[in-house]
Amino acid sequence: MLAKTGRILPELAPAVALRPSETFSDGLPAVRRKPRRVMLRAFTDPLQYTFFMYTKKKRGLSPWISCTAFFLALGALVLALRDILMPFIVAAVLAYILNPLVEKLRDKGVPRGAASMMVMMFALLVLLALLLILVPMLLTQFGNLTNRLPQLINFAQNKALPWLHAHFGGSLPLNKEAAAHWLQNHSGALQQAASRIAPAVVEQGGALAAGVGNFIMLPLLLYYFLFDWQHWAHGIRALIPRRFIDTYTRISREMDDVLGEFLRGQLMVMLIMGLVYGTGLMLTGLDSGFAIGMIAGILVFVPYLGAFTGLLLATIAALLQFDTWHGLAAVWAVFAVGQFLESFFITPKIVGDRIGLSPFWVIFSLMAFGQLMGFVGMLVGLPLAAVCLVLLREGSQAYFASRFYRHR
């Protein structure tokens, strides 16, 4: 109806026209009439209409008030749907990272659907390769730990507990009679604790099932995001007022550059931390220490996951290999030093320099976004800080060029 009348919002009429040769008023090409594109235009065109219609001066509302109200409503909607949005957000982030590969395949003549499928399968194969390396190693280490459990108990009774008693006092007997006596005396408290823990266990089980469902749905979402990425980009661009289109283009390119530098810097951090952990574990004499260190380095991309996974694997391997606590202490020291170097020197220096943030602001952004958004905030803290830096840089340039600043 908008394209037929052309009176309500002229900017929208070419976008829904039947002829694919028509263009936007600023030269942007119109989208071809394909069934999937028609469905997407049915969403974006009314959104454009809603976004712009109340900015007319005859309504008496400033465009900035309308934009603020729109984004506040959008934020409230995201907050209300936060429990189901995580797989969509993860798929969108992965699509942003992988879209350049799709574009390179498109330049070689591969259809976008096939290119999206190839890139999605490549990402799944990389993830599967990591799982095939990590899961068997975990199962092997836990199996070896189970077989050596009697020796570990004997070590604790004859060496560890006497040493603790000699240096710190107290008594920690580890035998069946003492354990049975303790359980008998505290049976009531244990029952009460179990009754309180059971609902939480059920809730966590439901959360785990939801997480598995989201993981299964993620490849499908990733494919559709990759397939429709350009159309989503054109739809967002069409929402921008024409007088701001140059500013939007410049800022979006700067954000692309900053996020690209962040990813390249993060890859370098992963390589460096893999070498740090691997070399340190080799120096302790730990068997398969270099492999465990490289796994920890690869997982450094997720905050604390790399250190935690590597520490768990290395601790199990140390318990199986070393007969004294000195080897275990050396393994723990490697991860303590590595985590310190990563948090306060390597990541702030390498990633911070690439995205234009000083080490102080890198540490502050990680802590601030972690406080505001929890684990997800720590994961996206640096890229969000880089985006904020681009916006602040643009805002400061506009401020210093404004009459408010220059007027005497």
TrEMBL record:
GO terms for cellular component: membrane. It is a multi-pass membrane protein. It holds the Pfam family AI-2E_transport. Belongs to the autoinducer-2 exporter (AI-2E) (TC 2.A.86) family. The keyword Transmembrane helix applies. This is Pheromone autoinducer 2 transporter. The lineage of its organism: Bacteria, Pseudomonadati, Pseudomonadota, Betaproteobacteria, Neisseriales. Keywords: Membrane, Transmembrane, Transmembrane helix. Its main location: membrane. The chain crosses the membrane at residues 61-78, 84-102, 114-139, 207-227, 267-286, 292-320, 327-347, 359-392.
